[in-house]
Amino acid sequence: MTTIISAPGDLIIATSDGIDVRFAGIDPTFQLPPGVGEAGSRGIVMYFEGVPSLETRNRDQSHLKEIDQWAERRKLHGTEAAGRFPIMPGAPVLERVNARISDDLGTEYRCVGGKVAGTGTEWDGCWGYAPEPPMSARIINFEFTLDGETTGKHCQIQLK
Fold first, then answer.
1. Of 3, 30, 55, 60, which one's alpha carbon is 20 to 30 angstroms from that of 69?
2. Strand 110-116 and strand 149-158: pairing?
3. If you ran DSSP here, which 8-state letter would residue 52 be given?
4. Is residue 75, in this structure, part of any structural domain at all?
5. DSSP 8-state symbol, 118
6. CB environment 79-118: b (16+ within 10 A), e (fewer)
7. Is residue 103, in this structure, part of any structural domain at all?
8. Which residues are CB-contacts of 67 (< 8 A; sequence separation ≥ 6)?
9. Residue 158: which pLDDT band, with cuts at 50, 70 and 90?
């Protein structure tokens, strides 16, 4: 069982392009998907989300209009002429947010993949880190980053 020892009171870990991003939890023994790390390996997954606001609603509305325009171009001129499907509004906001992870044993964790924004998860994201914490690790530390620079926000989680 994991327990949060310390975290920002509002769980806001970054502000990316005017959107607050909130820490939404971890899974310290997540089965990493095929192609990420070694086959059948486990790691840590960090979840985060854009905080709903007037700005996120406006971007969602603009995105719906872009989809309608794209669909119309596709109908009139074909798929290739329509160009790329419009990017989800959360993607460029959330993909900038990450974390540096360490534990009380000095284990080096590396980001091995993740996903941000998708149909039904427009403002959600997660990053996977390898390796899985060693059995003797007790504390996991998260130092949150925006574009690779620290945001000054930290979270410490007790594993056992």
1. 55
2. unpaired
3. P
4. no
5. -
6. eeebeeebebbbbebbbbbbbebbbbeeeebebbbbebbe
7. yes
8. 85, 86
9. very high
Number of compact structural domains in the chain:
1
3 state SS of 76: helix
Interatomic CA distance for residues 62 and 69, integer angstroms = 11
What are the residues whose beta carbons fall under 8 Å from the beta carbon of 101, sequence distance 6 or more? Answer: 44, 46, 109, 129, 140, 141, 142, 143
Per DSSP, the chain holds a count of helices (H) and strands (E) of 3, 9
d(CA 47, CA 59): 21
- 8 Å CB contact between 97 and 49: no
Q: How far is CA 142 from CA 11, 56, 96, 157, in A?
A: 12, 26, 16, 8
Placement of tokens 């997540």 in the chain: 30
The H or E element spanning position 155 is strand 149-158
113-134 pLDDT tens trace: 889 987 777 899 999 999 999 9
Q: What is the CATH number of the domain that holds 34?
A: 2.60.40
CB atoms within 10 A of CB 63: 17
- Name the residue range of residue 107's domain: 3-55+95-158
Torsion, CA 98, CA 147, CA 125, CA 68, rounded to 10: 180
